[in-house]
């Protein structure tokens, strides 16, 4: 990437032309590239590291590496796939450093993976009437369940199920066979369905709950009225 220059850029510019401008040091092109790909790349890093702050750090470092190497970007590849692979490698490298000797995420298609998923039963706070609060609560549950997916499944699910990359794009980004992408995505969805169904069952059991202070209040209120209607003798 060369010293900074700035031009006016059509936001609809294609990836190849955008990459060329970035390689030439165009500041506006750099900003546009990041805004275009930030979400997908953050989700990729987050799916591996399971930590927002770590994912942001990995994303920034990956961008710097990408910008240094973007002059070699081949237009026959998809820019998003090229960037996702750089971010995934950066995130995996960080994971290996922080988990020295511990079990780490593997993208090896031949590795034996035992799908494990904790079925948490944390009760959610009472639902708020506002739609946005309900959406936020649902999103938090889904994000937590995605975090509980086995490591190798989680990255595939985020790219395929959330970012809607094709099987081919996901395989290229993670450097695994397409058949492995299909298998892991299928199993990830099955695990999520099972876990979310468990969460729904727990929530259903608690629906229209009438315990605690609400129950006590009604009991005391009715008892008070009974004493008014049927006053106790002497």
Short description:
With 234 residues, this protein is an all-alpha fold. It has nine helices and no strands. Among the domains are: 84 residues, RNA polymerase sigma factor, region 2, helix turn helix motif (Rna Polymerase Sigma Factor, Chain: A, Orthogonal Bundle); 78 residues, Arc Repressor Mutant, subunit A, CATH 1.10.10.10.
Give me some keywords for this one:
mainly alpha, Arc Repressor Mutant, subunit A, Rna Polymerase Sigma Factor, Chain: A, 234 residues, 0% strand
String of helices and strands: HHHHHHHHH
Structural class: mainly alpha
Strand content: under 5%
Mean pLDDT comes to 79
Helix content: 55-70%
Distance between the termini: 96 Å
Gyration radius, rounded: 25 Å
- Overall 3D shape: elongated
Oligomer: single chain
Under the CATH scheme, the architecture of the domain at 15-98 is Orthogonal Bundle
CATH homology superfamily of the domain at 15-98: RNA polymerase sigma factor, region 2, helix turn helix motif
What can you tell me about this protein's structure?
By secondary structure, this protein is mainly α. Among the domains are: 15-98, Rna Polymerase Sigma Factor, Chain: A; 131-208, Winged helix-like DNA-binding domain superfamily/Winged helix DNA-binding domain (Arc Repressor Mutant, subunit A, Orthogonal Bundle), CATH 1.10.10.10. The chain has 9 helices and no strands. The protein has helices at 15-23, 27-49, 52-69, 79-98, 131-147, 151-162, 167-174, 178-205, 212-229. Helix 2 (27-49) crosses helix 4, helix 3 (52-69) packs across helix 4 (79-98) and helix 6 packs across helix 8. It is elongated, with a radius of gyration of 25 Å. 24% of the residues are buried. Mean pLDDT is 79; it is low at 101-128.
